[in-house]
What we know:
alpha+beta
Amino acid sequence: MKDYTYVYIPKxxxxxxxxxxxxxxxxxxxxxxxxxxxxRVKNYSVGYTLNGKFYTLQKLKxxxxxxxxxxxxxxxxxxxxxxxxxxxxx
Length: 90
């Protein structure tokens, strides 16, 4: 039986919430529970629930910052092999 592991790469971090991050595909991921958070509508406001409190998209935009860019040009066969071995050992 094969066991698959998915790696979700964070692109935007949220200040004050180290367990939450927006991934490259613009989904909010909770690294503590390893689940995606769903977008909600509450009183005509669209947003997400973080640690039990609702935040609108306008409030989230103010506290969200870009983590950094990932360059595919720096990938070599040895670096990919090291990452693969690290993920297998974990």
